[in-house]
Design brief:
The complex is a heterodimer. By secondary structure, chain A is mainly α. Helices cover 67% and strands 2% of the residues of chain A. In chain B, α1 packs antiparallel against α2 and α2 packs antiparallel against α3. Chain B starts with a helix and ends in a 7-residue tail after the last helix.
């Protein structure tokens, strides 16, 4: 392993880390601005122009608030909870291909941190691990509302992971690969995007992504009308901030995952007909990828300020009795179509 | 090789911690870490698929459910059921059986002649799938049937109607 390789990856990791955090920070502002727009009011506009410094003020406030660990809480796990939440949120973006290769001098730099050949499964593993943060935090608080929130989070995430995995299986039958890099590379141009092959799969995946991120209408774990604050009732100061942050990072990463699995990632229409050099296509590709991600983040927020919350039994019914059978039907349909295509239309 | 010994040490250490901690929640968390070290072992063996599946299924799903059940229990010391002498006696016998098995394995196993993997690429998804669906199709289908049976059984147990009086 050469030094330049290590340095290259280190730079890439740091850049992605910073971008992730900045996007998570400004998602909080965007959320309030969008809420304001939808409810016909201004939203935060005091700190800086258009409230652009608002996230910094919030961060500062989080740091300077008094930090309280309740007397009855389990001290170690109370701190471990938010730590796991933020760590799993940050490491999940490692396998996402942010762009094609960039040529700098003689070096070809791949804009992906790790090309694991089971990339999708890695994402799943990390997402599955994320629920420990919420569960441990909720349990360690030694508060009934927190415990209820933690339990809701656990059962919700387990239920929706199944439907999510099944919807991914149908996608894998089309792409024939588990590597995210290869899946995105296959969707070159516009007609090859997986959304055209897997519309139903995409809808199931998106609903499950909402549930996994604990976003409205699936935010039962922190439902304030029933559970005070849900699993983070007892948290104050930056530990609460970390939970919030990990939620926004999860939203960003799942937007990136949806964009790269179904909407072509860094690919954009007519990318091969423009006659640009490879580096320019890569740079435009990265910009396009981030535009798609922002589109999905906006969609997350749009849904949040439009739909009311589910009841918990409705949530479970939707997961087990609607999405899972639909996902299985999708797998069967995909299999039949693939078979017909291979038998009659293969050249 | 040093990596293997380090990870193996960690696995055994956390496995022992699982047994020796008093608090059930801690015990489950140590078990999670033990499973994580197993994942590392699989990666060292170049069995990526198995590693990730172990990660998702054991750490991500089964242990979450374990933790889920434990959180609902009242874990005060006073309510903890005392173990009867019968249980302790059975534990000792089971432990002795395990010891005898270990000893037998140690005698039969030739350390000087280690096993070698015929095809180091076997753990990758594509090769594993091909082997499972060609060479081991029958055992694979049988084990999936077994899992299906267990699932139906669980549903039946959970749906048991109360007796009409």
């Amino acid at each position: 392993m050469e030094w330049s390789f290590v340095i290259e990856k280190l730079i890439l990791v740091s850049v992605i880390f910073v971008i992730t955090l900045v996007i998570a920070m400004y998602s909080t502002l965007a959320e309030r601005k969008i809420a304001g727009f939808m409810q016909d009011r201004y939203g935060p506009d005091r700190a800086g122009i258009f409230g652009i410094l608002q996230p910094l003020c919030d961060g500062g406030k989080f740091f300077f608030k008094e930090e309280i660990i309740p007397a009855g809480a389990h001290k170690v796990l109370f701190i471990v909870g938010p730590t796991i939440a933020i760590i799993t949120a940050c490491i999940s973006s490692a396998v996402i291909p942010w762009g094609q290769e960039l040529q700098i001098g003689d070096r070809v730099v791949s804009l992906q941190v790790a090309d694991v050949n089971v990339g999708i499964l890695y994402m799943f593993g990390v997402i599955a691990l994320g629920v420990y943060g919420i569960m441990l935090g909720g349990w360690a608080s030694n508060n009934k509302f927190s415990l209820m929130g933690a339990i809701r989070a656990a059962s919700q995430s387990i239920s929706y992971e199944i439907a999510m995995g099944l919807s991914i299986i149908a996608l894998l039958m089309v792409t024939q690969s588990l590597s995210l890099k290869e899946i995105v590379a296959q969707q070159s141009g516009f007609v090859n995007w997986n959304i055209w092959a897997q519309p139903l799969g995409f809808i199931i995946f998106m609903v499950c992504a909402f549930a996994e991120c604990n976003r409205v209408p699936f935010d039962l774990p922190e439902c304030e009308t029933e559970l005070v604050g849900g699993y983070h009732t007892e948290y104050s100061s930056m530990k609460l901030g970390l939970y919030m942050f990990s939620e926004y990072i999860n939203m960003f990463v799942s937007s990136a995952l949806m964009a790269s699995l179904y909407f072509g990632g860094y690919n954009f229409p007519f990318m091969n007909d423009l006659g640009l050099s490879a580096n320019w296509i890569t740079i435009i590709g990265v910009i396009v990828f981030f535009l798609k991600i922002f589109g999905f983040i906006f969609f997350f927020m749009w849904v949040r300020w439009t739909l009311p919350r589910f009841r918990y039994d409705q949530l479970m019914n939707l997961g087990w009795k609607m999405l899972i059978p639909l996902a299985i039907a999708n797998i069967v349909l995909t299999g039949v179509f693939t078979l017909i295509k291979d038998t009659y239309f293969s050249s | 090789m040093t990596v293997f010994y380090f990870v193996a040490f960690l696995s055994i250490f956390f496995a022992l911690m699982t047994i020796f901690t008093k608090n059930p929640v801690h015990s489950v968390l140590y078990l999670v870490i033990t499973f994580f070290t197993f994942t590392v072992h699989y990666i060292l063996l170049n069995a990526q698929f198995l590693a990730v599946v172990n990660f998702i299924v054991y750490m991500g799903a089964i242990m979450v459910l374990f933790l889920f059940v434990l959180m609902l229990l009242n874990l005060n010391k006073d309510t903890e059921p005392m173990k009867s002498n019968m249980v302790k006696f059975m534990g000792v016998i089971a432990g002795c059986c395990l010891l005898v098995t270990f000893f037998g394995v140690y005698r039969v196993f030739e350390i000087s002649n280690p096993l070698t993997v015929v095809n180091p690429e076997i753990g990758l998804v594509k090769n594993l799938g091909k082997v499972l669906f060609n060479e081991f199709l029958l055992p694979f289908e049988l084990s999936s049937l077994l899992l299906l049976t267990a699932m139906i059984g669980a549903i039946l147990l959970a749906k048991k109607e109360p007796k009409q009086i």
